[in-house]
Write a structure and sequence with these properties.
The protein is mainly β. It has four domains: 250 residues, Protein of unknown function DUF4465 (Jelly Rolls); 73 residues, Immunoglobulins (Immunoglobulin-like), CATH 2.60.40.10; 79 residues, Immunoglobulin-like (Sandwich); 45 residues, no CATH class. Strand 20 and strand 21 form a beta hairpin. The longest helix has 8 residues. The chain is flat. The N terminus is likely disordered.
Length: 493
Amino acid sequence: MKRTLFLLAAMMMIGPLEAADTIRLNMQSFLGDYPQDADGKWVLTYSADHPSLDMEDFRFTHMTHAMQVQGSDEQGMQYWDGFTLCTNGDDTDYGFAGSSTSWPEHQWGCMAGGGLDSTGSLVKGAPYLVAYWGYNYEEEGVHSLQVDWNDGLTHRPLGIWVCNHPWAYYGIQHDDGFAHSFADNGAQFNLIIHGLDEEGKEAGMPIVYHLAHFHNDDLEISTQWQWVDLRSLGQVNAIYFTMESSDVSGVLGMNTAAFFCLGGMEILEHVDEIPRPAGLTAEPKDENSVLVKWHKVSDAAYYRVYVDSVLVDSTISTSYLFTGLETYTSYRFFAQAVSAYGESSDWGYVAARTLDLTPPTAPEHLRATEVTKYKIVLQWDAGTDNIAVDKYVVYVNGKRYSRPKYTTVSITGLDPATTYQIEVETLDTSGNTSERTALEVSTLSGTEDLEETPVSLKRTVYTMDGRKADGETGKGHVQIVQTGSKTQKQIYY
């Protein structure tokens, strides 16, 4: 791949800021439109008739859901997600190790103790937004936590004020029935801010902000309002939020309570600029190349293309084949429009991973290490792969039997004196499979032959595939010795 080894500075990603007025979110002026109840939350938080909170220049999503009562047409407990306006500023810990039962009725607080006034000062009783990420309802084009500009134009976000929510904060400090406390280096709870273009597709590289981070044997988690710079998103038509935590379970997803608080937001007034390339798609072509395409920008004379913030090339086309990439590796690809006058746009962005098309090697030295009337125990030498081996797939008479992680398997429930065709293949982390290694093994027929000899000791020798063998034992044989009612087995490798 032709690469210009030039790492762009962060300000090049942000781009020049045009002279424009700042638009600030003023929640205080909308308290009359969104009155609070005794708990300090918007009285219509659980109402399905209000899909958004509109505050002059900003529109915040709001959704409600109800569980259906099994066996009836009635609706049971209601849920909400998105944003709701609150004023109570409660930072009390309502949970404790092993229990979250008190949190649902006390989910309206803020660790800072209140909202921010127009000067950015903390004020008890000042409004703020409690945000809950309903990740179970997140769909393509429908985001639980989305903020739209009411004028429908593009704006450049400057930043937001965020704070930890008490439910998430205390769950990270101690177990609460779902969440686990952070005590290991690398544990983190993140807020991710995404930009959207006019088609509702990702615009700009998402920004990740640590709400909590355990590193250097210490937990960093704030109880104050923190400013998050969003300028690198560039001109966007909307933003939305997602969350992630290192504390997850396979079935339920994120265990940390998916809350945060929003205290303010600033964007710049719309300024006409050359639009960024939109609609970026990435198609991995092979193990070392990815084809990236985007929509034509009418004012563009040409486009600059980047991979992981490094300038790669320029092109007049609306597509570019990135080559020379590492196998099965994730990359971030960018396209930037440049006008005939040298004016450059914000970056269009898409992420993709190259393919892994190389199959693993087959298992070797497949062998039976134990054979009875009803069971066969197999062992083999591990397969190898250019990336990583995931597991093995075992077939019995052509039908898949199991997918063990390790190089052994016990096949049970078999019939006596029956020959089975057993095959094993290697499966890598990309889903590629190796050729199969096969072995025929016969289960034992029983003790009939032993009973024919009226002596106290009877020795029978079998080959590894279950056939009787005459003569002395040696490598590749199994010896069965019966002394009275006691049976012993010896395997010779």
